[in-house]
Design brief:
7-stranded mixed sheet; alpha/beta; single chain; Rossmann fold
């Protein structure tokens, strides 16, 4: 009975989004995971609501892919699930208290033993799992019986993915017509309209062949705010943009409501800029929107969640909404013309659509980001307080994408950039369709009735599915005209394969017609040339080879590409506040593919022997790649080295033990992964020797890890060491750490480089 009661209490303690995440994946989000719950409840996820039969066929298809394939694939990670933030914070406080006295450390050691024994009891409870599962199903059934629509309540879990099918006719482009008062009936007559110029341009076969085969020609330009820009294109005739010093909203050809709402919505950012108040853009927004509005691809690798993140979000929301409103206005206007046309009129004049309706795909990492995007859309559509936008399913959206203040663990001490990135609802599995028609917005629209799709990489991946699966769908990606990938650096910490999988399935010919009127489809879509017209906007906090590869190899926009390529002058090493000698050891590799093995061999042959001596204790080895971490862990076990390890999948008790053993010197080495540091940002105490197996993905992690040495005041500052392994293929990461000048010198010389940082360098 005790186990049954414990299972019931644990289930009731879950929030709505935690229950939903459990059903979808078989595990909780890495930020909030509870391993015990997974062991008790992983067999109850197939449970569905009584209303599931009433959902649309499209919703059923998406849900089945999500419940079957996503669940079974991720179920294998149950034994290595990360722990909840609140529980780990308790362990962190225990570890800090343990440093105060030896007696307290012994006491906490006995408590930790109890925790380990508790873990064994959990394993022994697995055969009785069905009993706890029955209890869970009873509780969930009771929750449903208590109310008719508790799925809208943020305190209750969503049994099945919801799509709005009630407002289909109201938001249908085929059955609606342009309202005269909308003020954009003659939008299609504006010859200088960037939207019309880009979408109506008819490419020839030889131009498409050039775009596909010929190398790109590039040119450089220096802009006041963005800095150095690289313009590239495969077509011979491409013009280099010039930065506009002043922008008149009327010259941007915005849809009429946006001309009046944008200055009001963007006012919060203008107050901190020393420019005339009548300017509707900040200097950064002005230059970014100038590129966006030209329909060129854009890569901006200097997004910062603390400083310019919201500015950038507002800029691309304006561009996406302007594109959708213009496209829909053109369709509605042509609907009116077709209705009033004379018999026998040529219908080729009304080709204004793609093979499917979705036009804009926005990839963001967390639900909080989607919430802010939708709120920005609503603000841009509301002309004044009297003319409110009619938003369908707004209450449900706030409940599922909003955050509960009580869920955040109290008294967390984390860096400001961490708080900015992980603010609000940080669930990373979601997708939502948004339909916009004149003065109304429809949330949770089925994908094939949506204008904009907002999703996370994992959320879109579970719909696309994998090759060989019976139920998978990616036809809705066939006619995407604008792809926005925001905060791309975070996907490196999640799963970059999801992004690559998306890029392989976007702008392909659909397998089904989905009821399209082919007489209204543009010839570019019928010719399967959609990818040559798609604009890609890529925003990241850093330059990384994997992100660069997506921009260079998966973007084929005929209008060209613009990439911001500023080089760091100082580097994050200047933020190291402890007096620490840095030794950068260069390893040689013949190619990018061989550098992984070359680094491992260099480490075990040249670096590790120097640290095997007992005098070199308290050595932390920072490993960015999880695969390298596993390889090193296995080698250390094989060699019977005295070490402990922490990664993103390490359990709570094991993290606490590893930190305590390392602090007390009972373990000579600590293997430490970058993803663990990204998600937790714990201060590891007791470090005397640092080894960066590879340069960090985030340059500021270098100074953060180095500054951890000051956390332990043991009077042994002179013995501190820091060793960094690098190769010629790490030029971008190296420049972000030491600066461009030092990087050039280090890459030219094959000798080890010794730097001594005093905190003022």
């Amino acid at each position: 009975m005790g186990k049954r009661r414990a299972g019931r209490e644990l289930l009731r303690s879950l929030s709505k989004k935690q229950k939903k995440h459990l059903r979808e994946f078989g595990e909780e989000h890495p930020f909030y995971d509870k391993l015990l719950l997974l062991l008790l409840l992983h067999s109850c996820f197939p449970f569905q609501s009584e209303d599931s039969d009433k959902s649309s066929a499209e919703s059923d298809s998406e849900t089945e892919v999500e419940q079957v394939s996503g669940y079974h694939k991720l179920l294998a990670t149950l034994k290595t699930s990360p722990e909840s933030e609140s529980e780990e914070e308790e362990d962190e406080s225990e570890s800090e208290e343990a440093e105060e006295s030896e007696a307290e450390m012994d006491s906490e050691g006995s408590q930790e033993t109890g925790e380990a024994e508790g873990g064994e009891e959990d394993k022994n409870d697995v055969p009785e799992e069905e009993e706890a599962t029955d209890t869970a199903e009873q509780i969930l059934s009771q929750e449903q019986a208590d109310g008719t629509d508790k799925s809208c309540d943020p305190r209750h879990g969503v049994i099945e993915e919801f799509t709005d099918v009630k407002h289909e006719s109201e938001f249908s482009l085929e059955t609606n017509f342009m309202e005269e008062e909308s003020g954009d009936c003659n939008a299609d007559k504006r010859d200088s309209n960037p939207f019309k110029q880009h979408m109506d341009k008819e490419l020839e076969d030889k131009e498409i062949e050039k775009t596909s085969t010929l190398p790109k020609t590039s040119s450089q330009s220096q802009w006041p705010r963005l800095g150095q820009l690289i313009f590239s294109s495969t077509l011979e005739k491409h013009k280099t943009l010039k930065a506009d010093k002043e922008v008149d909203v009327k010259q941007l050809h915005l849809h009429k409501p946006l001309e009046s709402t944008w200055p009001k919505v963007n006012k919060q950012f203008l107050s901190s800029v020393d420019k005339p108040v009548d300017s509707p853009f900040t200097p950064l927004q002005r230059e970014l929107f100038c590129i966006m509005n030209s329909y060129r691809d854009l890569f901006y690798p200097e997004r910062n969640a603390l400083t310019n993140g919201e500015e950038i979000r507002h800029a691309y929301c304006l561009h996406a909404l302007n594109h959708v409103l213009k496209a829909n206005a053109q369709v509605l206007s042509n609907n009116t013309k077709r209705r009033d046309r004379k018999p026998g009129t040529d219908t080729d004049d009304y080709r204004d659509q793609g093979l499917t309706r979705p036009k804009v795909l926005m990839i963001v990492p967390f639900r909080e980001c989607a919430l802010r995007i939708v709120h920005t859309f609503i603000s841009l559509l509301e002309v004044n307080d009297k003319k409110k936008v009619d938003v369908s399913n707004k209450k449900r959206f706030k409940g599922e994408f909003g955050s509960d203040p009580e869920e955040k663990p109290p008294n967390l001490k984390r860096p400001e950039d961490y708080e900015a990135v992980f603010a609000g609802n940080i669930d990373d599995h979601f997708r939502i369709g948004v339909a916009i028609l004149q003065k109304s917005m429809r949330l949770y629209a089925p994908f094939y009735s949506s204008d904009i799709i907002i999703a996370s990489p994992l959320g879109i991946r579970t719909v696309i599915g994998a090759e060989g699966e019976k139920k998978r769908d990616f036809d809705f990606l066939s006619s995407i005209e604008i792809l926005i990938i925001d905060q791309a650096d975070i996907y490196l910490m999640q799963n970059w394969e999801h992004v690559l999988h998306l890029m392989k399935h976007i702008n392909l010919l659909p397998l089904d017609s989905h009821g399209v009127d082919f007489s209204r489809v543009r010839m570019l879509n019928l010719n399967n040339w959609s990818k040559y017209y798609r604009q890609t906007l890529l925003f990241s906090a850093l330059q990384d080879p994997q992100i660069n590869s997506v921009f260079n190899k998966h973007c084929f926009n005929y209008a060209g590409q613009v990439a911001v390529r500023n080089v760091p002058l100082t580097g994050s090493i200047s933020h190291v506040v402890v007096q620490l000698p840095h030794v950068f050891r260069r390893l040689e590799a013949e190619s990018v593919t061989s550098v992984i093995d070359a680094r491992f061999q260099f480490f075990i042959d040249k670096v590790l022997p120097e640290y095997r001596d007992a005098i070199m204790s308290h050595t932390l080895i920072y490993v960015p790649s999880y695969f390298d971490y596993v390889r090193l862990r296995n080698y250390f076990k094989k060699e019977d080295l005295n070490f402990t390890h922490i990664c993103e999948y390490t359990k709570k008790a094991a993290v606490c033990r590893a930190r305590r053993f390392f602090l007390r010197g009972e373990k000579q080495f600590l293997l430490f992964t970058e993803r663990f540091h990204f998600y937790k940002r714990y201060t590891i105490k007791g470090i005397r020797n640092l080894i960066f197996y590879e340069l960090p993905t985030y340059s500021h992690f270098y100074s953060e890890i180095c500054n951890m040495l000051k956390a332990t005041d043991s009077g042994v500052d002179a013995t501190w060491t820091c060793t960094v392994l690098y190769s010629k293929y790490d030029a971008q990461k190296l420049a972000a750490v030491v600066g461009i000048d030092r990087t050039a010198q280090m890459l030219q010389s094959k000798k080890n480089v010794h730097l001594f940082v005093t905190g003022e360098n």
